[in-house]
Write a structure and sequence with these properties.
TIM Barrel; eight-stranded parallel barrel; binds phosphoenolpyruvate; binds manganese (II) ion
């Protein structure tokens, strides 16, 4: 992707802060929260006017009626304004109203037809666009959305990590799955990456710790839903914070340096490298044996997958780690990966000359 800088994001190493309500509700509400934020030094204002709600019947945003309110925030307070667009019509209306930055929401990123429609509507413009991760943890879909925009000539792109949906009881509204934004950063080091702790958390109490984690992972900034009267917000009331609470959160963030003196880490890293080499040596030894077992299974006409044995080993692994030095879920994931590679190897041994 060909990327250019988003000027307003250059803050001399300070995190970029985008704040404002989940939804623009009225001109007064928009002006009130924007004024409070501006007084506290926030210069990028967010507010959704077209709200993609999961179920019908919820507040779906004020629509284009909210655009002049955002223009007023821009002209009266000098803030940079951003809103979500999901269709070509939204893009046209937002650009005509002078919105400075557009963002693509998580539900839209998951839909290549919708993203392409937005990209086509943007052809020939150079407005910055921030792309939220899709609702499902598919990094290719996230990158694909940015590529569609980039192919249409949008070079001032940024990504927003807002977590991923999952089923069932959970601590977060959207699981952070930090490995996805980490991988995105690895692949596109020059792409600005913001974290939206509000939609990950779903509740305001978790916003500080998520923001700190994002800072520790070298994110460029935060998008935080902020409302002067969060309890009465028409959408996402549980996760919005007041401007003062936002400032308290920002004030508590510990900023760490990206690179320290390497010499301090040298001997630890050498040790880690040695352990990694040993792990890889043992894993390939394990795979060799798995292939030999595969030969034996073929001779005996046995099936590859042996659920009883699988469960037995899994339980043993979990017990090994009962001291809590590795989280049980991580142990399960590591073992699942090792086991699935063994299975793949055995399948290839067993089916190697049978076609
Ligand atoms: C929002 O930012 O208010 C929003 C709808 O977010 P998401 O697309 O992440 O759900
Ligand atoms: Mn919201």
């Amino acid at each position: 992707m060909k990327l250019d800088n988003i000027d307003i994001f250059n803050r001399g190493g300070q995190p970029v802060i985008v704040a404002g309500p989940c939804s623009a509700e009225s001109e007064e509400q928009v002006m009130q929260v924007a004024t409070e934020l501006s007084k506290r030094g926030v210069n990028i204002f967010r507010a959704g006017i077209w709200k993609p709600r999961t179920r019908p019947g919820c507040f779906e945003g004020v629509g284009k009626m909210g655009l002049p309110w955002l223009s007023k925030v821009k002209s009266e307070l000098g803030m940079c304004v951003t809103t979500e667009v999901a269709t070509a019509e939204h893009v046209e209306l937002a650009l005509a109203a002078g919105i400075d930055i557009l963002w693509v929401g998580a539900r839209t990123t998951a839909n290549p037809f919708a993203v392409q429609e937005i990209a086509d509507a943007l052809r020939g413009c150079d407005v910055p666009v921030l792309v939220k991760n899709p609702v499902n943890p598919d990094i290719e879909l996230w990158i694909g959305a940015m590529e569609r925009l980039n192919n249409a000539g949008i070079t001032r792109l940024g990504a927003i990590h807002r977590g991923f949906s999952s089923y069932g009881e959970k601590c977060f509204r959207n699981a952070p799955q930090w490995q996805l934004p980490i991988e995105l950063r690895r692949r596109f080091p020059g792409l600005p990456l913001l974290c939206d702790p509000s939609h990950i958390a779903g509740k305001r109490e978790l916003i500080l710790s998520l923001s700190q984690q994002a800072m520790d992972l070298n994110f460029d900034g935060l998008m935080v839903e902020t409302h002067c009267n969060p309890y009465c917000a028409l959408s996402d009331a549980r996760q919005q914070v007041t401007p003062d609470e936002l400032m308290a959160i920002l004030g508590k963030l510990v900023h760490r340096v990206a690179v320290a003196d390497n010499a301090d880490f040298q001997s630890y890293r050498e040790h880690i490298d040695e352990i990694d080499r040993e792990l890889m040596r043992l894993l390939s030894k394990r795979m060799e044996i798995a292939r030999e077992i595969g030969e034996l299974k073929r001779e005996k006409g046995m099936m590859v997958f042996q659920p009883l044995r699988y469960n037995e080993i899994m339980e043993r692994y979990v017990k090994f780690c009962a001291d809590g030095k590795i989280e049980v879920d991580a142990v399960r994931e590591i073992f699942e990966l090792i086991h699935s590679e063994s299975i793949r190897q055995q399948l290839s041994v067993m089916n190697s000359n049978e076609v």
